Amino acid sequence: xxxxxxxDYAALSQAAADAIAATVRRKPDxxxxxxxxxxxxxxxxxxxERYRRGELDTxxxxxxxxxxxxxxxxxxHRSLYGWMVSAFxxxxxxxxxxxxxxxxxxxxxxxxxxxxASVAAGGGFxxxxxxxxxxxxxxxxxxxxxxxxxxxxxxxxxxxxxxxARYWGGEDNVPREAxxxxxxxxxxxxxxxxxxxxxxxxxxLRETLAPxxxxxxxxxxxxxxxxxxxxxxDRDALPSLP
Length: 242
Ligand code: PGA
Hints:
Layout: E1 2-6, H1 9-26, E2 31-34, H2 41-52, E3 62-65, E4 67-69, H3 80-89, E5 99-100, H4 108-121, E6 127-131, E7 152-155, H5 158-168, E8 177-180, H6 183-186, E9 191-196, H7 202-209, E10 228-234
Parallel strand pairs: 1-10, 2-3, 2-6, 3-5, 6-9, 9-10
Antiparallel strand pairs: 4-8, 7-8
The structure holds 2-phosphoglycolic acid (PGA).
């Protein structure tokens, strides 16, 4: 696991965009697992601009959704699929045929089975772009969690209900359950990029990087990932390298 610290959110967004673009250059049909949330948005905007300037070829890029609220209707403004599409797929012209959806409209067991089958048929994730939850979650792999957690339906913890409240105008508007790509399959990605910004993530990032992985800090399992892991943080999140 490699830790990279940059000055601020702007530099973090540039560096994350560089890393994603490098994967796509190396493997034009890369399958990218994409977090929503606030942290990666600067990188996605930057990639959209590079694409518009003709600096990035996305003609074969494939993307997969990381997590989905359960029990919301098609077209609901809280759809995390919709968020991924508007933040990444549309600006980079990636059509639905090259998108693996974790479909919250289906019965959960079927949605999870279809998703895992599509990921396996697609050769697995080349790059997982992940954010760090204030409770250490990756996707909605909520603590406590074991390394082999599968893709599944999970109740959101109070910490995630609180932290997601800012996206949807209050905690009462946050769905109570979600589907998430399992920790086990994201840890199989050939590369993982964890993006972390802000002083409010400082303590949980310190716990993520602490020597032993722990079920209480899902992101600490990144230390046992199969592929290359880069933790990209700004100085507010990681004032001094561990
Ligand atoms: P954030 O979310 O990028 O909006 O901080 C991270 C997360 O909760 O997974």
